[in-house]
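Problem statement: downstream parser choked on a complex file, so we are re-checking the raw output for the glutamic acid run. The parser issue turned out to be on our end (a line-ending mismatch), but while we're here, posting the original submission so the record is complete.
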Amino acid sequence: MYVGRFAPSPTGPLHFGSLIAALGSWLDARSARGAWLLRIEDLDWPREQPGAAAEILSVLEACGLNWDGEIVLQSRRNDLYRAALERLREGGATYACACTRREIADSAPAIDGARVYPGTCRAGLAEGRAQRAVRVRTTDEPVIFEDRLFGRHVQSVGHEVGDFVLWRADGLFAYQLAVVVDDAAQGVTDVVRGADLIDSTARQIHLQRLLGLPTPRYLHLPVAVNASGEKLSKQTRAKPVDPACAGPELVRAFVFLGHPPPAEIAHAPPRDLLDWGARNWDPARIPKLRAASD
Ligand code: GLU
């Protein structure tokens, strides 16, 4: 049984970029007669915008993107993340880290724009230093997975990212840990999301292996960028999707994903567009680009 999911962070209203991830994951699930779950990734509550989660839900509803079961809120799941971290610690996979961002600023740039952790605290905290964060040990051995759009992806997590943070200096669990715990707990078989996350996937597979969890299939979708080539986001002031224009916004997202609806349904209500989409979804038609402007 196929289980897919959409996992927005409520840092702002849903913009066109997130609509693509929502639509792509919905179509992939529904065309496989699978379940589509909704998880609000409100773990990083200082970045949360009040009311954003409710706005996201109302846009999904207006677009006819119906989900199955209860909505999962990451903010209620700290016990699960803590238990996973504890298991990793017991297995010797993690260590306490005292380094500040400044102390690792001279290290090589990592694939995610941060720094490759130089391993300073790997063998234990230096005398007089206190724990700030918890990191997981990585190795140079490449993690290989087959993305359903982009094909074979190879990343040496140790070399390209380094030992990464699972429990942050601000006391929050890191996205990488939470997403792995939640995808497994929710029985997710297929992750469909933006290609901005493709470089996180090897880290997530590394954690799945350490925790003895299954690895889902991955399909990364092109990310929408604005005319300056910046990813649509709250920071780049992307326009929120207007629930009153759900049909035209969906058509735009279908076109972006390489599935232009036929003229006779281009003005049809969302439900008809989605029915057509679920019948005609073919990931081979998605443009093989990490980023595209619409
Ligand atoms: N919450 C993440 C975001 O909104 C997506 C996480 C995921 O799909 O794995 O960018």
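For whoever reads this later: The domain at 3-78+182-293 is CATH 3.40.50.620 (Rossmann fold).
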